[in-house]
Design a protein that fits this description.
single chain, alpha+beta, Uridine Diphospho-n-acetylenolpyruvylglucosamine Reductase, domain 2, Uridine Diphospho-n-acetylenolpyruvylglucosamine Reductase, domain 3, five-stranded antiparallel beta sheet, 20 strands, binds uridine-diphosphate-2(N-acetylglucosaminyl) butyric acid
């Protein structure tokens, strides 16, 4: 096990923030993970876990030991005529798994193409896009419980999935390390999800029928046209969650702003409104503050033009939150994990 000291995290977070970890180790298998956990315990080091770094904002250096989960492997666990169960290591890149599924013509994750990050991080925040959330294809996951260092299995119910939410962000936050995830994908009779308007539009424009491959390509096309590529412009996708507000409050806003977009929320009596719209209405879209700012094509994305610190990005996020609270009386909560 190779533990590095005062390690730069710049290449390990898609915001490109030049924070450091006091101690850093990459683990590629279960044995190394246990060794790293034991090391942290022996040396009384607080532990931080990292996947692909695509949903984090480092506002300061990380004290203690930062463990990067980088185990690999995608195997068919079992299959029948209709379904295939694929076991994927937590350290695999999410989009590599999507491409593996698409190439094999297995259905279920094509709408989730080109989401940055690792497979292990995906169930933590129940990643979702273009009408599909990971919970639709999730079968179970394996994790190591930190307090006992033993393996635990979580089925779908145990994960308590919600909108960008799971038990791993709530009561089990920093309590377990996800090591393997099993997905159930379709082999035939796949029901395509083109309910998200733009997908159907792209298929029509290109004169393509819905297929796993074509939907994946349409989603990649839509994402590339709206969302900045973190390799070019540092960002972590949506910075905030779309707020779910009491429907009564929504109706008052709608009376004032009749064009306000809205969706059904998960909780009865609540309505979801797109944070991107609220932020744009406050005049933030495309606004630059020093080395960072709000993206010109998607107001929900905060970008690092180069050289911004995490604290500077956080200051922009707070200013955005304040504007939206003042104009609409709506509180925005970060979707990105801030350290
Ligand atoms: N909108 C604006 N201005 C903007 C951005 C959006 O008015 O600058 C409006 C759009 O016109 C539309 C609505 O807001 O009416 C929704 O916009 P969009 O379809 O772009 O999606 P979103 O709600 O902003 C969510 C996810 C994205 C996901 C897309 C597509 C969250 C926090 N974000 O964004 O996920 O790709 O839907 O399904 O739920 C991510 O989590 O990192 C992410 C990119």
């Amino acid at each position: 096990m190779f533990i590095q000291e005062n390690f730069s995290l710049q290449a390990h977070n898609t915001f490109g923030i030049a924070a450091q970890a006091r101690f850093f180790v990459t683990v590629t298998n279960g044995e190394m993970l246990l060794e790293a956990l034991a090391y942290a315990q022996q040396h009384h080091l607080p532990l931080t876990l990292l996947g692909g770094g695509s949903n984090v904002l480092f506002t300061k250096n990380i004290e203690g030991l930062l463990v990067q989960i980088a185990n690999k492997g995608m195997v068919v666990e079992k299959e029948d005529e209709d379904f295939v169960w694929v076991r994927v290591a937590a350290g695999e890149v999410w989009h590599d798994f999507v491409q593996f599924a698409v190439k094999n013509n297995w259905g279920g994750v094509e709408n989730l193409s080109l989401i940055y990050g690792t497979v292990g991080a995906a169930p933590m925040q129940n990643i979702g896009a273009y009408g599909v959330e990971i919970k639709a294809v999730f079968e179970y996951l394996e994790a190591i419980e930190l307090s006992t260092q033993t393996k635990k299995v979580f089925d779908k119910t145990a994960c308590q999935f919600g909108y960008r939410q799971s038990i791993f962000k709530q009561s089990l936050k920093n309590q377990v390390v996800i090591t393997q995830v099993v997905f159930k994908l379709t082999k035939r009779n796949h029901v395509f999800n083109t309910s998200y308007g733009a997908i159907q539009q792209v298929l029509n424009e290109k004169n393509l029928s819905p297929s796993i491959q074509n939907i994946s390509e349409a989603v990649i096309h839509i994402r590339q046209s709206k969302l900045p590529n973190p390799e070019v412009l540092g960002n972590a996708g949506s910075f905030f969650k779309n707020p779910e507000i009491p429907t009564e409050q929504f109706l008052q806003l709608q009376a004032q702003y009749p064009q306000i977009p809205n969706y059904a929320a998960e909780i009865a009596g609540y309505t979801k409104v797109p944070a991107g719209w609220l932020i744009e209405q406050c005049g933030w879209k495309g606004k630059k503050v020093g080395n960072c700012g709000v993206h010109k094509d998607q107001a929900l994305v905060i970008v690092n033009y180069g050289g911004a610190t995490g604290a500077e990005i956080w200051a922009v996020a707070e200013a955005v939150q304040q504007s939206v609270a003042e104009k609409f009386g709506v509180v925005l909560h970060p979707e990105v994990n801030c350290f």
